[in-house]
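SEQUENCE-TO-STRUCTURE ENTRY
===========================

Subject: a protein chain together with a token-level encoding of how that chain folds.

Sequence line: the amino acid chain in single-letter code, read from start to end.

Question of interest: how does this chain fold, as expressed in backbone structure tokens?
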Amino acid sequence: MNRIITLLKVWKRFFGFLFFCWMILMRLPESWAQSSPLQIIQEKAKAVVTIQSVNATVLAGQPQGIFDKSTGRILILNKIRPVGYERSGSGVIIDPSGVIVTNAHTVTEAGGIAVTLFDGTRVFCKKVLVVPNTDIAFLAIDPPFALASISFAKPDKISEGASVYTIGHSEYIKGTLTGGRIIGIKREPINGAVRTSYLRVTFSVYKGDSGSPILDKKGDLLGIVAAGREGRDNATFAISSEVIELAYKTFCDQPKKEVNPKKS
């Protein structure tokens, strides 16, 4: 009898072990299907673009007089010298129809704006809206193919200490993923409600990183890089997605400025 009881206990443990293994195997596909934050952010890189704005001016020097022997007249000549500048920054596709958010200082008064997509395809901006009293601008392009886009994060999900990520655009860290944390949140009254206007995060940015996305672990947009600061903490300031989303509604309702760049 004791032997039978012992065998029953052994079989009970054995079947219990098999049940435990079966439960683990049932959960494995679910765990495998869950991507890490870095994998998610890397996939979102397809919605990050390069923006180049060009403006051209003409400078004239002092007029010069030349005596024309054939006519006996003095000809007055003005020397004209073309001068141009180019600004570069990053932007984020927020609507697959071809709407991009970036910094206003990158595109203000630009004569032409070109957008380079993740695969190197270069398209020209057809419309632009600079939101008054902000550093936010929206661009519209004709999508050459189906575009990836990044959704806005929910305002109530923004909290100090949360992990954040960005995709570098400057020549030093272009295409690289950088992680940090939110260490400051500025809230102020905007359009009749207290909203998050700026974020302060703990990673460094460089020249050309303006407009780069600040993303949460789900790959949703928390904001875009506005400026960096040198110092002990090398803090970066970002315009929050709550303000951007509010401005985007304005973008959808207002007429945009036509942009007709000179195609080369």
